Amino acid sequence: MSTEIKTTCPYCGVGCGVIARIDDNGTVSVKGDADHPANFGRLCSKGSALAETIDLDGRVLHPQINGERASWDKALDLVASRFSQTIAEHGPDSVAFYVSGQLLTEDYYIANKLMKGFIGSANIDTNSRLCMSSSVAGHKRAFGADTVPGTYEDIELADLVILTGSNLAWCHPVIYQRLAAAKAARPSMKIVVIDPRRTMTADIADLHLAIRPDGDVALFMGLLAHLAGTAAIDQNYIGKHTNGFAEAFAAASTLDIADLMELTGLPSMQLRQFFRLFEETEKVVTCYSQGVNQSASGTDKVNAIVNCHLATGRIGRPGMGPFSLTGQPNAMGGREVGGLANMLAAHMAIENPEDCDRVQRFWQSPDIARKAGLKAVDMFRAVADGRIKALWIMATNPVVSMPDADAVAAAIAACPFVVVSDVLQETDTTQYAHVLLPSLGWGEKDGTVTNSERRISRQRAFLDQPGEAKADWWQMAEVGRRMGFADEFSFPSAADVFAEHAALSAFENDGSRDFDIGAHARTDAATYDALAPFQWPQPEHAAAGITRFFGEGGFFHADRKARFIAVEVPVSDRTNTDFPLTLNTGRIRDQWHTMTRTGKSARLSAHIAEPFAEIHPRDAMEIGVASAALVEIESPYGTAVVRALVTDRQARGSLFVPMHWNDQFAAKARIDAVVAPLTDPVSGQPASKNVAVSARPLRVESYGFAVSFAKPQNLDTVYWALAKAIGGWRLELAFDAAPDSWTEWCRVHFGIPDHIEPLGYADAQSGDLRLAFFEGDRLLAAFFLARQPVAVARNWAIEQLAVRHTELAKRFAVVAGRPGAGRMDPGATVCSCFGVGVNQIVAAVRGGCHSVEAVGKDLNAGTNCGSCRAEIRGIIDGCLAAAAE
Ligand SMILES: Nc1nc2c(c(=O)[nH]1)N[C@H]1C(S)=C(S)[C@@H](COP(=O)(O)OP(=O)(O)OC[C@H]3O[C@@H](n4cnc5c(=O)[nH]c(N)nc54)[C@H](O)[C@@H]3O)O[C@H]1N2
Ligand SMILES: Nc1nc2c(c(=O)[nH]1)N[C@H]1C(S)=C(S)[C@@H](COP(=O)(O)OP(=O)(O)OC[C@H]3O[C@@H](n4cnc5c(=O)[nH]c(N)nc54)[C@H](O)[C@@H]3O)O[C@H]1N2
Ligand code: SF4
Ligand SMILES: [Mo]
C-alpha cells in the first residue's frame, strides 16, 4: 500500500505538478504529474531529486530566543511586543518585513495585510525585488497592470521563439523541454538566444546573439525602428489600442546601424538577420528573464521588448507575445497579494487613493499605507543607518543574495531586533536572528502558488509536521493577533486565507482590474483540498480554460490603451579602469539559490561541486590564471575566491560566477559581497549581471582534494569548497602555508580518531602527498595534496567511501588516487538522475553512440528528466569534432 498526493514543485516558476508517493515504510518518492498543464508529467533534475531534500538534517525544529529554545508563546509575544513598542516609539516606518517569492500565497497575503493594513507602513519588500520587479514596472508602464499576457502553449505554437537574458535549459528546464520537443516536431520553428555567454540554451538556437552586456535596449530599439518600415507593423492595432507610438519610434530611429553595432557588439549581418526573422514571422514569442530584469536599464529593456510586440499587434494571440519568465515558485502569487513595497494588494495601486480606501474598507483596518515603502536595497540601507529598528526576514537568505552582501550582513548584525523564519538552523542569515522561528517546509505545508503563466496550483502537505515547526502564515497571523488585531487575523486554516484573498480580488472589481479570482471566493476546506490547477482570471461564474490578455486590446490604463515607452540607450558609467572586467552572475543547473535545499542532495551536488568563474581563454592568459587555478575577484564592495573555468563560451572581458555558494559551503564565495548595490531607477531592481570588477590569480602554496565520511569541521584555509557526496562529503582545498603535520590536520578536520594511522605516500620533490584513513575495511577519509590543482579522479575517489576495502591492494589504490586496471573513472557527473559521468559518455560516443538517443540507450543518461540532454549533445559534438580533425 502507498499513498499518492498531488502537489507542486517548490523550485522554479514553471510550477510543475508533482505526485509524491509515500510507501508504507514512510519512503517518499516523486514523479511528474501527467495531468498538470504546466509539465504534463515532466520534471527536471531538481524536481526529480525532491525526495532527497526532505530529510530533517539541519532543520530548525523549535523557536529560539537568542539561541536558546523557547516556547511559541514566549517567542511570539516577544516579537509582537518588540514590534509594537518600536512602532509606538518611532512610528510604523521604523519596522520592516523582508519576505520571499518562495512564500505561499497565503503566507504572503497575511504578511502584506499585517504590514500595509494594520501596522500602516509599506515597509514590506521581498526578494522578488531582486528578481521580477523590472518586469512588474515594465508591465505597469505598458499595460497599466502587472499582466503576463500569454501561456506556455504560446511558446510551443510560435514559429519564432526569442530567449533573451534567459538560460532556459538550466533555469526553466521543463519549458525548455517543451520548447525542444515542439522544435523537434516542427523543425521550421526558429529559436534565437540573446545572451553574452554561449549557454547550454544557446545549443538549440538557430541564431545566438552574443550581445554586449546591457545592449538589449539598443537591440530592441533597432528592431522597432526596422519594423516601422515594413509590412509587419500593425497600424490598426496601434491606432485602436495604443498610445505613444510616434515618440517611441522617434526615439528608436535616432540609432543608425553603426550605433547599433557599437552598442550591441553584434555584426550587422546578425542584426539584420534577427530583424528580418522578427519581421517575417507573425507568431513570435519573446521570453525574458534575469538578463533583462537584473539591470540598471531593466525596466527599459522590458518596455523595449514590449514595444515591438505592441507595434506588430503580436500579443495575446496564440503563439504571440512578450513573456516574462518568473523565477521563484510563487513570484507571481507575491505580486497578486501586493508583496512589493510599491504595490497594495490584488493588483491595486498604493498611489491610488481610491484603491487604498477600497482595500481598507475590505480589511476593515484601522490604517492603510498610502505611500510606497522602502525597496530591498534601500530597506537594508535604512536598517544600516538605524531608521529601521525591527526586521522580520522570512524564506529568504539576504546575507547571500542581496548585493553588497557584506554591508547587508553588517546591517542585520547591528539591527536592534531581528526575527528570522526559516527551515534551517544554520544559514548565513539565521546566525543574526534574535528570534529564530521554525517554519514548515515543502511537503509539510498547505497553500497555493502561481506560476509564470498565471496558473494557480496547490502545494499539499504529505509529511508529518516536524518538531514544533509552524506555517509561515500562522506565525504572522499570531503576531498580528498579539499586536491587538485578534479578529482580523483569526484564520482557522490556509483555505480561509485563500478565500479572503480571492474575495478581495473580486471586491468592487468591475473588470478594471486584471487579477480577479472571484470564482474561488467561497472556497472551503473541501474545495481547497480538491482545488485543481487553474489560470487566472477566473471571475465569479467564469468557466476555467486557457486565458490570454490583450489580443483585442483591453489594457488597464484609464483609457484602456497600452503605452509605448520612448526608451533611451542607457549611459555606461564605466570610467574606473581599476575594475576593467564585467562580472555577470546567475545560476547553474542543479543548485537552487543559496543551496539550503539542493545542497543536501549528493546527486545534485555532483554536477558542479564548487564555485567557479567562467573566463575567456585570452582574459585568463592576460590576468595570468591557469585553468583550474583559483581566481580572486574584487570590486570596491568586497572580494570572492573561486575556481577558474577557462572557456570560450564566455565573452572576452566578462566573468560569470554562480550566485549559489555561501559561507556554509565555501571559504569566500558569496559573490554578492562583490556585487555593487546599483539599481534600476524605475524598479529598484539590482543590476546583478553587469558589475565592474578586477580579477587576479590567487597564489597558493598547495592545492588539496579530500573525501570524508564525516562532515569536515572548522575549515579555515584560504580556499575550501564543500559538497555532499554519496557516502559522505567531498572537499576542494587550497593552502597558503603547510601545517606542522598533515596527518594531524586531517584528524582535526575529518574527525579521525587517534588510534587510526593513515596509509600514506609523500614525494618531497614534487610536493605530492596522499593520506588514506581506514577503519577496518571502510574508508573514513582520503586526502590528496599537490602543488598544482589536484588531478585525482574525483568521482572514483568518492565511490571509495561506499565500497568495502578488504584487500590491501584496494586500499593502496586509494592512496594512488586512481582506479586500478579494468575500472574506469566515471568523470564529472553529467546525468544526475542515473549518475553518469563525462568519461562514460565519451567512451560510449567512441563506441559508436553518435546521438543523444543512442547514448541514452547505452547508459540511460538523459532518459529521465532530460535536463542533461544539451550537455550530452555538446559532448557528442565535441568528440566527433575532435575525431574529424
Ligand atoms: N537551476 C536553477 N534554476 C532556477 C533557479 C536556480 O537557482 N537554479 N532560480 C530560479 C529563479 S528565482 C530565477 S529568477 C530564474 C532565473 O533564470 P535565468 O534568468 O534564466 O537565469 P540567470 O542565470 O540568472 O540569467 C540568465 C542569463 O542572462 C544572461 N545575461 C547576463 N547579462 C545579460 C545582458 O545584458 N543581456 C542579456 N540578454 N542576457 C544577459 C546571463 O549570461 C545568463 O545566462 O531561474 C529560476 N530557476
Ligand atoms: N548576484 C546575484 N544575486 C542574486 C541573483 C543573481 O542572479 N545574482 N538572483 C536574485 C534572485 S532572482 C533571487 S529570486 C534571489 C534568491 O535568493 P534567496 O531568496 O536569498 O535564496 P534562497 O536560497 O531561495 O532562500 C530561501 C530561504 O528560505 C528558506 N526556506 C525554504 N523553505 C521555506 C519555507 O517554507 N518557509 C520559510 N520561512 N523559509 C524557507 C531556505 O532555507 C533559505 O534560507 O537571489 C537574488 N540574488
Ligand atoms: S522545471 Fe524543474 S525546478 Fe522548475 S518547477 Fe519544474 S521540476 Fe521544478
Ligand atoms: Mo529569482
UniProtKB/TrEMBL annotation:
Residues 2-58 form the 4Fe-4S Mo/W bis-MGD-type domain. InterPro entries: Asp_de-COase-like_dom_sf, BFD-like_2Fe2S-bd_dom, BFD-like_2Fe2S-bd_dom_sf, CT_Nitrate-R-NapA-like, MoPterin_dinucl-bd_dom, Mopterin_OxRdtase, Mopterin_OxRdtase_4Fe-4S_dom, MopterinOxRdtase_cofactor_BS. It is an enzyme of class 1 (oxidoreductase). Its cofactor is [4Fe-4S] cluster; Mo-bis(molybdopterin guanine dinucleotide). It comes from the Bacteria. SUPFAM superfamilies: ADC-like, Formate dehydrogenase/DMSO reductase, domains 1-3. GO terms for molecular function: oxidoreductase activity. Its EC number is 1.7.99.4. Keywords: 4Fe-4S, Iron, Iron-sulfur, Metal-binding, Molybdenum, Nitrate assimilation, Oxidoreductase. SMART domains: Molybdop_Fe4S4 (SM00926). PANTHER family: NADPH-FE(3+) OXIDOREDUCTASE SUBUNIT ALPHA, RESPIRATORY NITRATE REDUCTASE. Belongs to the prokaryotic molybdopterin-containing oxidoreductase family. NasA/NapA/NarB subfamily. This is Assimilatory nitrate reductase catalytic subunit. It comes from Rhizobium herbae. The lineage of its organism: Bacteria, Pseudomonadati, Pseudomonadota, Alphaproteobacteria, Hyphomicrobiales.
